[in-house]
Amino acid sequence: MAVDECLLYRYGAAGDTVLRLYGWSRPCITIGYFQGVREEVNLERCEHSQVDVVRRITGGGAVFHDMEVTYSLVTKRFHSDIMASYRSICDMVVLGLGHMGLDASFSPLNDVTVNGKKVCGNAQTRKGGALLQHGTILLDVDVEKMFSLLNVPTAKIRDKAIAGVKERVAGIGRTFEQTVDALKRGAQDAFGCGLDTMSLSGKDIAECRRIMAARYSQRSWTHKR
C-alpha cells in the first residue's frame, strides 16, 4: 500500500502513468478507506491465522487477497466521470483476459466478469490531480476461508452468503505469470502504448518506508474507523 501511494504522488501527480503488477507473500485483507475495521473484519481470527489487515487509501469494500494478481495504475489522464474512468481502465483487464481466451466484459460500476461471474473488482481514489486505481484478478478463490475472516452476523447468514458468492464469483484458472503477461498486453491494447520496465529508485524506496512507518504500519491508521 505504501508503494502504491508513493507511485500516486511521485509519479502520477507528476504526469507519468505507471502500472504495477504484484502478488502477496501471504494472505491479507485490505479494507476500503471509509470502512470500519471491526465492523468488517474478524481481527482475532486474522491474527491467529497470520493474515495481515490494512486500510487502503482507495474506497470500496473489504477484500481478501490470496490467490490473485493485483494491479495498481496511477495516471493524470483519466475521465472525470467515475463510470467512464472505471470502464476505460478495466478495458485493460478485459482485453488482457481476452488474450488468455476468456470472454470477459466490464460490469458497472467497477467489476469485470467472465461467463457472468465476477473475476475482478476495482477501487479508486483521486488526489493531487491524479488517479490511483486498485484491482484484483482472481486466479482462484477460497470462499470458506474468506468468510471465516470477514464478519458475518450468524452461521445461517454466513452459509447463505457463501452460497451466493460461489454463484457470483470465480477464479480464472490461470497462473500468476500467465495473467501478468496477459495484463501487460491488455494495457498496451487499451492505452495504445508501449511499456517500459521501471524500478523504484533509492529515493522512492526511502519514501515508501516513510509512508509505511507513518501510516500503514500504524494501528491508528487501520483502526481509524
Protein architecture, described:
The mean pLDDT is 94. It is built from nine helices and nine strands. It has 225 residues and is α+β, with helices and mostly antiparallel strands. It is globular and about 45 Å long. It has a single domain, classed as Bira Bifunctional Protein, Domain 2 (BirA Bifunctional Protein, domain 2, 2-Layer Sandwich). It has a six-stranded antiparallel β-sheet, sandwiched between helices. It has a three-stranded mixed β-sheet with strand order 3-2-4. The chain has helices at 2-12, 37-40, 43-48, 82-98, 143-149, 155-168, 176-191, 202-216, 219-222; strands spanning 18-22, 28-31, 52-55, 63-65, 68-75, 104-107, 111-114, 117-127, 130-138.
Q: Termini separation (Å)?
A: 18 Å
Biggest sheet architecture: 6 strands, antiparallel
- Tell me the Rg in angstroms: 17 Å
Domain tally: 1
CATH-assigned homologous superfamily:
Bira Bifunctional Protein, Domain 2
DSSP strand content: 15-25%
Helix content: 40-55%
Average pLDDT, to the nearest integer? 94
SSE run: HEEHHEEEHEEEEHHHHH
Low-confidence stretches: none
For the secondary structure, the number of strands is 9
CATH topology: the name is BirA Bifunctional Protein, domain 2
Task: Name the CATH class.
Answer: Alpha Beta
**Strands side by side in the biggest sheet:** 1-5-9-8-7-6
- So, CATH architecture? 2-Layer Sandwich
The number of helices is: 9
Structural category is alpha+beta
What is the subunit arrangement here?
Answer: single chain
> What is the 3D form?
globular
